Amino acid sequence: MLVRNCIFIFIIFTVLSTLLLRWINPPYTSFMLVKQITTKQTSHKVNWVDIDMISPHLLIAVVAAEDQKFPDHYGFDFAAIQSALENNKNNRILRGASTITQQVAKNIFLWPKKSLFRKGLEAYFTLLIESLWPKWRILEVYLNIAEFGPGVFGAKNAAQVHFRKSITNLTQHEAALLAAVLPNPYKLNASEPSSYVSNRSMDISDQVKSLGGSQYLKNIWE
Q1: Domain of 142?
Q2: How many domains in the chain?
Q3: For the chain, first and last CA: distance in Å?
Q4: Residue 87 has what pLDDT?
């Protein structure tokens, strides 16, 4: 009985919390709190910007870089997961396959250290988010909480720190550079790009073109 009640309370609490975040902008995330505690950095908070103020170049750049099936999947890209598993069998450099929705679930609700338990919770919150939020909201939250450099959380801060400009006015090249550092913002730098970052940003720009540019995201507004 106790276990059943605990599960029921957990489900109600998590569903209500996720539903509220459809309209309420999170002031911080669990990742921010964990990094503040473990690194003893100054406190972080979300410097929010609405999606209609974000450069369309950045919207499509992060989708091209991180999750090209974002407009159509229901939280998981099973083809990418299978490809990553095959790659990781024979390569020392491991490749992930998390969708944008999975990254939002992990960053808001969970913790950095990987485990099967965390992956299970991540899948649960991913399904909640996909069920309760529209696609544009998922992308909006992602761009406001993603880390684009050590302690540089959110696209608004990233545009100011790396390019000293408004997030609204990012060029296609600058957007591709920001998207290029997302896999490892602690080693990759958008404002002082290494040859790897420069090459990756060019590849992202090519992917954006192949997807058809910002028009590729037209269905997320529905």
Answers
A1: 2-221
A2: 1
A3: 42
A4: 58
